[in-house]
């Protein structure tokens, strides 16, 4: 039996070896996407008990599972681990300068690839939200040019 499929011991003396803040970020993002723990387990190919243990701080996800969780949840590892806020100056210094805008085809391909990393159960919701944000930006741009 793999460690991922084992359930935590039933006694309450089992030590927490995970990170409760990380677990809470994962649970919050999962809920934001409208996913249950069962949905997240299926999308990541981890067991339900493993997801529950991560979310409750009883264990940490392995490096391999960290990447899988970040992709399924549609967030970066920095956001997953809460390091994005603590390193803003470093991010700005390391961020590559983009001198050329992507073509429409490149932008669409990139958006499709990102949406396809989400679980099928939330892709349409994500696409709808992207469409609403793009339309809001178009309306804002038009109102600026009319002033």
Automatic annotation (TrEMBL):
<dbReference type="GO" id="GO:0003700">
    <property type="term" value="F:DNA-binding transcription factor activity"/>
</dbReference>
<dbReference type="InterPro" id="IPR001387">
    <property type="entry name" value="Cro/C1-type_HTH"/>
</dbReference>
<dbReference type="GO" id="GO:0005829">
    <property type="term" value="C:cytosol"/>
</dbReference>
<feature type="region of interest" description="Disordered">
    <location>
        <begin position="1"/>
        <end position="21"/>
    </location>
</feature>
<dbReference type="InterPro" id="IPR050807">
    <property type="entry name" value="TransReg_Diox_bact_type"/>
</dbReference>
<keyword id="KW-0238">DNA-binding</keyword>
<feature type="compositionally biased region" description="Polar residues">
    <location>
        <begin position="1"/>
        <end position="16"/>
    </location>
</feature>
<dbReference type="GO" id="GO:0003677">
    <property type="term" value="F:DNA binding"/>
</dbReference>
<protein>
    <submittedName>
        <fullName>Helix-turn-helix transcriptional regulator</fullName>
    </submittedName>
</protein>
<dbReference type="InterPro" id="IPR010982">
    <property type="entry name" value="Lambda_DNA-bd_dom_sf"/>
</dbReference>
<feature type="domain" description="HTH cro/C1-type">
    <location>
        <begin position="26"/>
        <end position="80"/>
    </location>
</feature>
<dbReference type="Pfam" id="PF01381">
    <property type="entry name" value="HTH_3"/>
</dbReference>
């Amino acid at each position: 039996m793999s460690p991922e499929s084992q359930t935590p011991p039933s006694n309450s003396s089992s030590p927490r070896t995970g990170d409760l803040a990380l677990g809470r970020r994962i649970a919050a993002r999962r809920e934001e996407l409208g996913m249950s723990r069962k949905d997240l387990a299926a999308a990541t190919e981890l067991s339900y008990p493993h997801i529950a243990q991560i979310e409750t701080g009883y264990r940490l996800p392995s490096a391999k599972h960290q990447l899988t969780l970040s992709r399924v949840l549609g967030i970066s590892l920095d956001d997953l681990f809460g390091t994005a806020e603590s390193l803003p100056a470093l991010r700005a210094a390391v961020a590559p300068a983009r001198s050329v805008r992507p073509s429409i085809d490149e932008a669409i391909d990139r958006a499709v690839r990102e949406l396809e990393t989400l679980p099928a159960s939330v892709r349409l919701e994500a696409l709808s939200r992207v469409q609403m944000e793009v339309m809001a930006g178009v309306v804002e741009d038009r109102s600026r040019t009319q002033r």
